[in-house]
Amino acid sequence: MAYHHLSPERRQILRVLGTTAFSWSLAGRYARAQGAAPVPGPEQLRIGYQKSAVNLVILKQQGVLERRFPGAKIQWLEFPAGPQLLEALSVGSLDFGLTGDSPPVFAQAAGKDLLYVGAEPPKPDSSAILVLADSPLQRLADLKGKRIALQKGSSAHYLLVRALDKAGLAWADIQPVYLAPADARAAFERKSVDAWAIWDPFYAATELTIQPRVLATGRDLSGNNSFYLAARPFVDKHPQALAVLFDELTRADQFAQDARKDAIKLIASFSGLDAGVVSLFIQRRPRSPVGLLNPRTVADQQRVADAFFKLGLIPRPVTVADIVWAPKAAEFARLART
Prior knowledge:
Layout: H1 8-34, E1 44-49, H2 54-62, H3 64-68, E2 73-78, H4 82-90, E3 96-99, H5 102-109, E4 114-120, E5 127-131, E6 147-150, H6 155-166, E7 175-178, H7 181-189, E8 195-199, H8 202-210, E9 213-217, E10 226-231, H9 232-237, H10 239-258, H11 260-271, H12 275-283, H13 295-310, H14 329-337
Parallel strand pairs: 1-2, 1-3, 6-7, 6-8
Antiparallel strand pairs: 3-10, 4-10, 5-8, 5-9
């Protein structure tokens, strides 16, 4: 429709109304998708998540799973990082959760009984190695001998391993300081450490508030894959529930992509993060539909495991494929349709 004959004020009003109508249209389509038929499910479903788990947060805020699994007791448990989440999963306190690439490797090496059940595409721009703006460190090679904060066993752990390798440094050339994200940021700001390896949304929050310099992101270093893991008893008893979860998680991702402003408001209201922080970390996040692990993803994850074993950071070698849930494609499609 041509608006050139209207006053600037009228044109602005029509643009706003058009944008609002488009947003409501997207929300309406998502709401209709949420109306998918309820299915027989578990009596309880305990889900572990972090603030960066966009798809899970949207499902939580929209109450989707409560409608898909009527009668099930849905519990949502937040964790500061993947290692803590997988520890809860391994001791029977969780059924399902999302982590980065490194936590499952450490869990498998420790003999934890869990399964990779799904994956999202890589997010290489969503993690970084940071230094303060006035830091003398300019290159990755300058990390030699320096104190670097990181969450042990997290995706940032592997990012740092790869960064040191690229710089021609050994793990023994640095002083790792193992801290959870909140404690690491405090140490970083008071200059108790020289650098910090971290992921979104902590990366985005720090970037906007104290404007550090980025020595490296995951690009060309680490794909920063995201994995859904589940307790083996849950997988054995409720494979159809996993098919429903993947379907709804992928719908949630579509909502995050197509109704970006609404998704930012939803995530910000839940997490307490500033909308600007949420906007920044979602911008770095590619489309993230959820599916079964493919051979390439398993091979990427095996490289993570091999790197940690080579450095002596895990006690034994592990074969990632041993704990990958791999239903036949036709069977999984049947579960999704049922």
